[in-house]
Design goal:
This is DUF3311 domain-containing protein. The protein has 77 residues and is mainly alpha-helical. Helices cover 74% and strands 0% of the residues.
Length: 77
């Protein structure tokens, strides 16, 4: 079943792939950051962003699963 929470989870998981596969958006050297060309620091920034998005997706999934189990557990007692 598609719910708004699951759509957000999907977006969180797909966004890093889209960002890394769209090479034309970051295949350049400027602007440099602390002497590091844009091409490299952009990819490294996405490592951190991907970690955060994956964590958010996981927490949302856990909350969604608990919410789905709660009515079933209450009815069984």
């Amino acid at each position: 079943m598609v719910t708004p929470v699951r759509v957000v989870i999907g977006i969180c998981l797909v966004a890093p792939f889209v960002a890394m596969l769209w090479v034309g958006s970051y295949a350049k050297t400027d602007p440099a950051f602390i002497g590091i060309p844009f091409f490299y620091w952009y990819q490294m920034a996405w490592v951190l962003v991907s970690t955060a998005l994956t964590m958010i997706a996981y927490k949302l999934w856990q909350r969604d699963q608990r919410a789905r189990r709660a009515p079933q557990g209450g009815a069984a007692k």
